[in-house]
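Q: Joint fold for the lines below.
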Amino acid sequence: MAMDAVTSGRVKIIPERYAKSYLDWLGEKRDWPVSRQLWWGHQIPVWTVTMQPSHEAIETLRVQEDELEKLLDECKKSARVSVRLDRQLYICVRDENDPIQKKLDELKWIKREQDVLDTWFSSALWPHSTFGWPDQTPELDYFYPTSVLITSRDIITLWVARMVLTGLNNMGEVPFRQVYIHPTILDAYGERMSKSKGNGVDPIDLIDKFGADSLRYGLAALTTETQDVRMPVQFECPHCQALMDQTKKNRELPKVPCAKCGQEFSTQWAKKPEDVALPRAAVVSERFEVARNFMNKLWNAARFALINLAGEGSGFRVQGSGEGGQRSEVGGQTTTRHSPLTTHHLDLTTEDRWILSRLSTVTQSVTESLEGFHYAEAAKTLYDFAWDEFCSFYVEIAKARLSESGTLAPRVTGQVENLSYETAQRVLAHTLDVLLRLLHPMMPFLTEEIWGLLNQVAPERGIDELVEPTQQIIIAPWPQPNLAHQDQEIEARFATFQAALAALREIRSRQNIASRQAIEFSIKCDAATAELLKPMAPYFQSMANAAATALGEKAIPPPTHAKTALASMEIYVDLKDFIDVKAEIAKNEQLEQKLLAIIKGKEAKLANESFVARAPANVVQAERDSLAQAQEQLASARAALATLRKA
Amino acid sequence: MSSFSPEALPNRFDFAAAQPRIYAAWEAGKFFHAEPHPKREMFSIVIPPPNVTGALHLGHALNNTLQDIQIRMKRMQGFNTCWMPGTDHAGIATQAVVEKRIREEEGKTRHDLGREELVRRIWQWKDQYEARILSQLKQMGCSCDWERTRFTLDEGCSRAVRQTFFDLFSKGLIYRGKRLVNWDTFLQTAVSDDEVFQETVKGKFWHFRYPVVKGSGFGVQGSGMETRRVSEGKEPAFVEIATTRPETMLGDTAVAVHPDPAKALDKAEAELRERLAKAPAKEKEGIEQQIENIAKRRTEMLPLLLRLRDMALAGRKVLLPLMNREIPLICDEWARPELGTGCVKITPAHDPNDYAVWQRNPSIGLINILNPDGTLNENAGIYKGMTIAKARQRVVDDLDGHGLLGDVEDRDIELPHSDRSKTPIEPYLADQWFVKMGDGERVQGSGFRNQRRAGGVKWRAGGVSPLIIRPASRKWPWTPSPAAG
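A: Joint structure:
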């Protein structure tokens, strides 16, 4: 029956591969030794009358026979007492407070079993005993079978299978609908973490250092579909805060010198007073540093948004924060009113439509990932969206709209600007709102904090309609993807734009061109890509201070340029304003002379028959290769000179 | 604070200040608590209860974060969510930790304290560590339904345990029996296979000689067995065996030889040849060497093994040195002619394989030589009271003194250790309670008779009612114990 529960899908094990160890173990049908010679546990409720007593005891027992008869008659009448003769006479009593138990305890010739039950016996009952069984409680009726069990693979047989067995025996129903088996965390060397090895990371240390949200996000991001996950572990130097990789060697030492600052710190092994006196290094993992950076990035993006949403005349009232202590009920009152500005009137810009489209896609994807226990996938989707799209992109673009003429306050000179300003605020507030809700399960504290602040500056939020949010995010409704916002074309356009923008920024930094200096560029690409990029001209302007001179198949590289080739496009930045043509000509002429001399020398050497005949073949070949290379460099220098002279 | 200015926000999230404040607000809002609500769809999870042994580690942090992520999402999706929290009493793990502390701090054992006092001390420990674990879960942000917090040893769980045990007992699914268990001599309890880990230690392989008892058995007395003799040559004066555990010889009850050593060698060779055909080049040489070794054994050892086999069939005996006890030579396939001397000592009470040999040859009997604390008991004769290590040295020395010690080889040995005490596990014969897993899932009500899984020993686990056992004479079937006490 317990096997059928899994094969028939009444209990679904995720990932599916773990169903095998469950079924194999049940298939073995090994009897379970349940007694332990301990004192801490559930004492076995059995009283024994020995059937192999000593000669002296037999005499006593014969005297007691009548009493035993009477006792057994009484036991027989009770449905809560069970008696069995199996070499010895065993009496099992169901209830602790049964008067028979007291009687049995008082009889000297009957002994209570001293052993306790294996600890897994009580854990096997956990899903129904915690909800009230053996009583028929409303909780048991309502919450059992539970929805999902989340555990690690080492206790699939010890615990999971036994819960199914007892659930079926006691409740006639499986204890849970789904079992999710998560990976085991190992260190960089593939070893289990343990205090006795010195590679154990204390979660409370991590909370103190990085915050609970970083710990949670870091762990979720680690939870891939694999059986084990590796997490390299570092010492954090208490002197200079540098992270130093733990090795199998240094993790066993009582003190370690920091690789960066050279000062010594102690480890958990410090015993000698002089070692103990050294400051202790915490054992951490840089995985959580990544998570902390993410947390700070979100905080700062939110801070920017809050500052810009709090602007006067924004359509959002600024609320006092005096009522922070109030609470609202789950699914409580939320008031909805239609915005005076409908979506149509909102005059959404391309970037607004893009971020709303992405937001809808991401909402769908994160919901599916989390419902399918693909934690790492959900964590990555949120990270990429929040960091690369929302913070680095949308907020950057919005900055221009929100601070035209250099002030944070909106210009009231014309309706268009005002509308654009309010629209940007609406989209910004809405995107932050949805992002916070999607992030809440992983980063509950940060999102709750920002939610409270956002409620103060934007007490009504939404795109199609304005909704008053719940006071706490913990009870806010989970976001629904707005399919009408999804626009594949605009997402493709922005993806292409982002790639080109990244290339331009890379060229800037490679060529050392300051961002305040305007640049011109051309992109050689197919017609479809050019169509996607054309409307993005203002964004190239605002985000990269760059103007496109040509887009499409016919784009020709300028005489002096820097180039980056991507999968679907070649990007050329015109360098005519950034290089000294005369100096470049002189430089190339010098190079030309130098190369000519090298070539002459090598040609002479290779013309020498005795060298070619006597030198080892590989030396000769190396000489030939190097000649060919010099000739190539010469050709390239001459080509450069030709274009430079034309410029 | 009357108005809020975002510009005044710090440029880093002050999580240390925010976490406790926010968590307190969640608790005050009762957002974690759920009551049954017939009109709302529920979502429930029971926590894998952490052991009250100590603090939470990163594995717990992962496990609970993943649960809280589901619970929080489902709560936001509108489900009536209940995450049931609690801790596990973790029998052996907790008792071991507390006993260790009492020993270190007060120099007392559990027997000094007595059952009641030890259990009281562990409850104190539990209260302290449970509080710590629950507070750590809260620091992580876990949104458990704390009002419902449970403990596997609380009153409700205890009732559930007794109800279940009683039910299984009444259905005949619980029985008591002696079985070779993994014995932790330090904690003095049986531990399950899952609480045992293997560790390779440096050890030795000692060769001993047991003298053959002259004129024992029926073969030499000219019975029918004599005519069936197929082996030739002079009768050996000694049987040589080898062991990594010399002290267990005190509990030997037989020496086994293979019933058909020639066939066993052929079979071993055939298997090697099969492996050779499939083996990669670098392993071939080693396998070829083993095949040669078998050929050598066929000429050098087989006659002796055949002779010993015949002696075994003839009921001959060897004298167990030091104990001066006669033990039979027996035929059993556990003896492997391709390994060692081809003969094995059989210590059924202290080795799982030898235990299986005893199950096939119950007449040889079994002798337990250990006390629960790992010292030798009265069955070990003059070695009584010694530790295993000490007895091992003495047995080797004494056999050497009698000229019965052969070669001593160095060996790496895979030794089972207890996960809790980190001390070596002893296979030990003890009375244990078992839950029947075999047909158990289907058995309802009355008792049953069944073959046990391994070994073919008939095991009666019957739910016999007191009415049936009560004899007409009203005399109880008392049978005096052979070794009372």
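Q: Anything notable?
A: Chain B touches chain A through 144 residues (CB under 8 Å). Confidence is low (pLDDT under 50) at residues 219-230, 440-476, 480-485 of chain B.
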